[in-house]
Design a protein that fits this description.
The chain contains 11 helices and 12 strands. The chain has about 325 residues and is of the alpha/beta class. It has 2 domains: about 250 residues, P-loop containing nucleotide triphosphate hydrolases (Rossmann fold, 3-Layer(aba) Sandwich); about 70 residues, no CATH class.
Length: about 325
């Protein structure tokens, strides 16, 4: 996969902090200083363990964090403007139009009482005030369902969510997300909990859509294969921060951060033969992160300094950045 050379930053997230406070006033620092940027026309894959805040990040970008969550600090600069400071009308204008969010597969994400014409056209109706009954809405939906390779688009447009297969329902969501020709699409685990064959088709569809519409995309996943396939760049989320970022080849062939390397050594498809090993220790507790480098209790390269001081973000060039004290000492990852 070639990374585009005309590097216009479309979105930049800076020092984003989204916290949840429970009724005992315990603060969960889910995102605690997340920074990254996305170049126009590229796909950024965001990888992180389950519960690491990937979905919270997707919502934070559109300033859609639900209570008791709150964005306490940071900037989300889209086309030069901070979305976190934008008035609600401006955000509503962007959401579902220029920036489209495909939510993580959740039961009940469609209204069971409305058909797929209604579901697919929702972002279009919201932004144009067209009525659902307008025959043009139906025509648009049918053509949109064709775009996402639904074989019987007219029939499907009249179906209800319980009549759709998992694959169809994902296609409808994609059709709906693309109906307003968005510039940026945020897809949160679009193939999680879908069987492998259908997941394969959905990934192919994303690939086609990406090229056809020159989408800029944030693809959230916890599956390495999914990310490797669609991403131009990959960012890894750990303990509320992006601990490594790079182009997809660099991340997959020359990962530097011990956590990123650990993910590969723990992956049956990536680990060198006979060297499969889990990352030791527990996932970090967002109410009480370790001091210094937050990965230090699990890191085989940790030294005293790692325990005491927050590591710097080291820029290795070519958009490869790593949050670590000991870059020079970490051996190359080897898949042999
Ligand atoms: N509305 C909420 N209120 C309180 N905690 C939340 C809320 N949404 C998510 N969380 C917590 O934030 C953490 C990250 O969640 P999430 O972003 O869904 O993780 P991921 O998508 O990486 O699996 C989890 O511990 C989750 O329990
Ligand atoms: S800063 Fe230290 S503890 Fe953290 S990842 Fe690097 S070597 Fe490991
Ligand atoms: Mg999630």
């Amino acid at each position: 996969m070639t990374v585009k050379t005309n590097k216009e930053v479309l979105l930049e997230v800076q020092n984003l902090k989204t916290y949840y406070t429970n009724k005992y006033k315990v603060v969960f620092k889910i995102l605690d200083g997340v920074s990254f940027k996305i170049y126009r026309g590229t796909t950024l894959g965001i990888l992180g363990p389950s519960g690491s805040g990937k979905s919270v990040l997707a919502r934070s970008i559109l300033n859609l964090v639900e209570r008791p969550g709150k964005i306490v600090e940071g900037e989300v600069i889209y086309k030069g403007k901070d979305l976190l400071k934008a008035p609600e009308e401006v955000l509503n204008d962007l959401r579902g139009k220029e920036i489209s969010l495909i939510l993580q597969n959740a039961p009940g994400s469609f209204d069971p009482t409305r058909d797929m014409t209604f579901a697919t056209s929702q972002p279009f109706r919201a932004h144009t005030k067209e009525k659902y009954a307008n025959p043009e809405v139906k025509m648009l939906v049918v053509s949109q369902l064709q775009v996402v390779a639904i074989s019987e688009p007219v029939k499907t447009s009249e179906k209800f969510s319980h009549q759709l297969s998992g694959g169809e329902s994902q296609r409808v969501k994609i059709a709906s997300a693309l109906i307003n020709n968005p510039t940026l699409v945020i897809a949160d685990e679009p193939v999680a909990n879908i069987d492998a064959t259908v997941a394969r088709q959905i990934l192919d569809l994303f690939q086609i859509m990406k090229e056809k519409y020159q989408l800029t995309m944030i693809l959230i996943a916890h599956n390495l294969g999914v990310l490797a396939e669609l991403s131009d760049y990959v960012a890894i989320l750990y303990a509320g921060k992006i601990i490594e970022h790079g182009d997809v080849e660099t991340i997959f062939y020359h990962p530097k951060h011990p956590f990123t390397q650990g993910l590969f050594y723990a992956s049956p498809s990536m680990a060198p033969r006979g060297r499969l090993k889990p990352i030791p220790g527990d996932e970090p507790d967002p109410t009480n992160y370790p001091s210094g480098c937050r990965f230090h209790p699990r890191c085989e390269y940790a030294i005293e300094k790692c325990r005491r001081e927050e590591p710097p973000l080291v820029d290795l060039g070519n958009d490869h950045t790593v949050l670590c004290w000991r870059i020079e000492e970490i051996p190359e990852f080897t898949s042999e």
